[in-house]
Amino acid sequence: MTTQPHPDAPVRPRVVLGVGGGIAAYKACEVLRRLTESGHSVRVVPTDGALRFVGAATFEALSGQPVHTGVFEDVPEVPHVRLGQTADLVVVAPATANLLAKAAGGLADDLLTNTLLTARCPVLMVPAMHTEMWEHPATQANVALLRSRGVVVAEPASGRLTGKDTGKGRLPEPAEIVELAKLLLARPGALPRDLEGLHVAVSAGGTREPLDPVRFLGNRSSGKQGYALARVAAQRGARVTLVSAHTADLVAPAGVDVVRVGTAEELRRAMHEVAPAADVLVMAAAVADFRPVSLTGHKIKKTDRDPDPVALTRNADVLAELVERRRPGQVVVGFAAETGDEGGDVLDYGRAKLKRKGCDLLVVNAVGDGKAFEVEHNSGWLLSSAGAETPIPHGSKAQLGAVLWDAVRALVEP
């Protein structure tokens, strides 16, 4: 007996998850789990090669739907046409060199390649292969052709490959694949290759100012917004340098160069080092305004008497320095985490900061009560030095990133 969904039940986005025949096929199980647990209806369409790495029973158990590879199974349902026609998104992870070649050539010799031909929704292909295969002119030509047709071919990660090999071609982590998938479901045009040829530098996370070998002054920034900005920029074709202060154990985005820092002064030096060669500078990090005047070389002990006051000194204003030293044509973006008070609301303080800092764009976020810090979503306003004020609706931090890069692209000289 088939149970029909309640007529008032929310519509679940329909995702086809294609799985290619590479060792990274095992990661597709985590992609599938994350998608189903976040409310998506997922139909897995593996290749025969994929089933040599992960059995059909695993995909069926995790998705709750049948798994087929050929066009002559379940023929009355015409799956080789219906799956693509009814999908809201097709994700192929891993996309092997063979699959990319078939998709570019329009071949259709199994259920997955037929589905790719009939899909009229966004298609996200996530490559995974050895570095030599990824860099081969044939693969690069296939990727360029697919991208010219509107297919989103993600940048692979760098790291451990099969055996002892390392290099570019590793499948990005499942969480990153799911974030890109959700972004395309929310904004189908969010990942054009419109930042190619640009070098962008993004700061992220919260700085920590040491008091002694154990304690520090810090803030609640998780770094998730800065990492989302870097991830979206890389997938839109930019060369990205991510200057990362303390984060909540975030994995580096695929295709991004990461510079690790701890204190505000370390972040300042790193940003000034990368700034001269960058086309765009984005200060999304939560930089401490103050640091202790002196660092105690030993742990401050708890005693019966009241502790001595901690003397503080002001840190440099990194955003203001970057604006002051920017070269012609360089775009500088700031972030403002604000709360309202008797002196004004969040937007009032954001406008004042934009005027005071002199940056080209400023993202203003209201913080507190589960907003902005340590959460998966964000909202706010995008203020321009030209006077435009664009509300950013509540959505994922990747969605905010897409809004910001749209605005940056309009400012960058061609």
Automatic annotation (TrEMBL):
Q: Which SUPFAM superfamilies match?
A: CoaB-like, Homo-oligomeric flavin-containing Cys decarboxylases, HFCD
Q: Where does CTP bind?
A: 289, 299, 335, 353, 357
The Gene Ontology biological process terms listed for this entry are:
coenzyme A biosynthetic process; pantothenate catabolic process
Q: Which UniProt keywords apply?
A: Decarboxylase, Flavoprotein, FMN, Ligase, Lyase, Magnesium, Metal-binding, Multifunctional enzyme
Q: What residue spans carry the region label Phosphopantothenate--cysteine ligase?
A: 200-414
Give cofactor(s), names only: FMN; Mg(2+)
Q: Which Pfam families match?
A: DFP (PF04127), Flavoprotein (PF02441)
The entry sums up its family as follows: In the N-terminal section; belongs to the HFCD (homo-oligomeric flavin containing Cys decarboxylase) superfamily. In the C-terminal section; belongs to the PPC synthetase family.
Please report the name of this protein according to its UniProt entry: Coenzyme A biosynthesis bifunctional protein CoaBC
> Which organism encodes this protein?
Umezawaea tangerina
Q: Mind giving the lineage of the organism this protein is from?
A: Bacteria, Bacillati, Actinomycetota, Actinomycetes, Pseudonocardiales
Q: What is the gene name? A: coaBC
